[in-house]
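[job 0417] fold request received: LbtU family siderophore porin
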Amino acid sequence: MKKTVLALLITTALTNPAWAVNINEQMEITGGVQLIYGTRDSEVEDGAGNISNEKVDGFAAQAVTLGAVYKPNEHVDATISALYEEEIDGVVTDPEIDQAFVTWHARPDDKLDISAGNQYLPFGKYETAMVHDPLTLDLGEGWRDKTLTATSKQSNLTATGFAFAAEATQTADGSKHDQGYGIGISYDTETAHAGVDYINNLGESGGFADVNNSTDVVPGVAVHGSAKLGRVTVLGEHIMATKSFQTGDLADADGGSLTAAAKPSATHIEADIDLNNDRTLAMSWNKTKDADTQLDLAEKSYGITYRQPIMKGIEGAVELMQATDYDDLKSKSVTAQIAYEF
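[job 0417] inference complete; emitting structure tokens
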């Protein structure tokens, strides 16, 4: 699920003050609640090769977020955020401090910002208007509690460099790999975006959280872009490892591991249609490669989402989605969402 949701809420709140609670001139509180009701019908294969259908439905607090930004002066600000998540199948992420970092605005007008603390790694964009996350996020999104990020914006160009304390381990002895780092560059206009990011070890992402061991570091690259063509916005992103994980890598606590070399990747393509009056129709397509064993991602998925405002600060959405795994077993879901932001 989208752990970057609070970071997006904070950004939105700062650029749209009506969506933030101003405690005083130095403090702003942001947050949101995403409630869903969903039903999912999945094909399941037993050990004898027989296929049956398994149905799950129910309500869930998809994401509950609360954050604060403290700005004592124009040169420094501090951000802290908390997050709680759950799925309709009962999978719960307990409340946790999601981000806690300090930013020094070393030069005005975003020419140089330096942040340190617990924050998301600036690798990948993961933009979507769907209710559920793209498979690119499941493969590439990561966060670390000891991260240093420097960002410089010059006109339409933004360059980012980051370093963090590595958590991924070596398959042979369980020791941690060397320090993590990455870079990124993007170009933005009012109607278009293009960017590319690099991380020295894709195994540092959240998708590898319980199986983040490898014989050697496996670099990752993210390429993303968007273009607004009239009332249609087209989004695209591709996350990929630049070399393979080896047999025996990605070992889990139950003794499972890769039985063959794998070079995982994920692609997300989406078209968002503006229906006027803040109504949006979104259609998405996702595909992965070498992301089944130990990562358990779907091979492909496609869906459609309609969303519109209900009242000030409250938005509703309905999503239809179908996913297919690497054994050609299908899963169909319908999800209704109510989202409130302040």
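[job 0417] notes: The chain has one domain: 100-341. The helical segments are 5-15, 135-140.
[job 0417] exit 0
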